[in-house]
Every structure is written in structure tokens, then in C-alpha cells.
Amino acid sequence: MLLVYPRPGDHRIWMKNMRIALRVFWIDDQFTVISAQRLEPCNSSPCPVFSAPRAARFILELGDYPHALSVGDKIEGLAGM
To answer: Which domain holds residue 57?
Structure first.
């Protein structure tokens, strides 16, 4: 899933009631991956909240398996969003 925000900011997510782990990538307004984390499901309360170390404009959630994507990579195809 790709989450698209109108402006860069401190966009956070949590894993409340998720059933599977995810690989999550925060992407800035220059289409650069600024953070990558593997997140575990959370069934307790309160659940931890996760964010990038600086402003992000996009959050990409992918399945929990190895991806070639890493911090510093440029993403193509997001211009115009």
C-alpha cells in the first residue's frame, strides 16, 4: 500500500490489530527513501508508533520479505502525486 500525503511531515503509523509483519519505507518529497523498518503486528495496548527521522511525504508498506529497496534509493513513478 502506498500512503500519499499532500505535504511532507512527521507521518506516523502503527501496527494495531495487524495480522502480519510489514516492511515499511518512508519516502521524502524528492522521492528518496529516508527510512526502512520491519514492523511486527501489535495486539496489545498501547501499540508503538513508528516514524521516519525527518519529514516524509510517502509511506510504502510491503510484505515482510527481502526487497531491493533501501535507504538512499530514489523511487521513480511518484512524480505528479
So the answer is: 2-63
